[in-house]
Amino acid sequence: MHYTDLMLKFASEEEAKQNLYDKVATAWDNSDPENQIETEWEYRPRFRNIDVLGTIYNGGSWDSEGNELEAPVAEPGWHVNVRCLEGETSEHLDAFLVDPTPATPRRVWA
Fold first, then answer.
1. What is the spatial distance between Cα 68 and Cα 60, in angstroms, rounded to a whole number?
2. CA–centroid distance for 92 within its chain
3. Which of 43, 49, 83, 110 stands the most exposed, by the fewest C-beta atoms within 10 Å?
4. Of all residues in the chain, what percent carry a pLDDT higher than 90?
5. Residue 19 gets which letter from DSSP?
6. Gap between the Cα atoms of 50 and 53, Å rounded
């Protein structure tokens, strides 16, 4: 099976959802037969393999008892890894690719 691994960085979690999921109506108000109103939704993934890292932190230090000495610093953006399988279209994600690819990624697909 052929696949492509993508490391992505979005401006926010909402931007990631807009690009990785379809918002699908799951319930409607049927009180007016000519004008059904969507009342509930769920997000359905466009890809079979999505790994949400979210906010990534760098640095920080703690003493031997686990007390924070120096706070870790958040990297900008919302980070997600996607493994695109054959037939899954990912061209719209090119603008979100992490470039350059990290030498030591936080997580990779096994």
1. 8
2. 14
3. 110
4. 80
5. H
6. 10
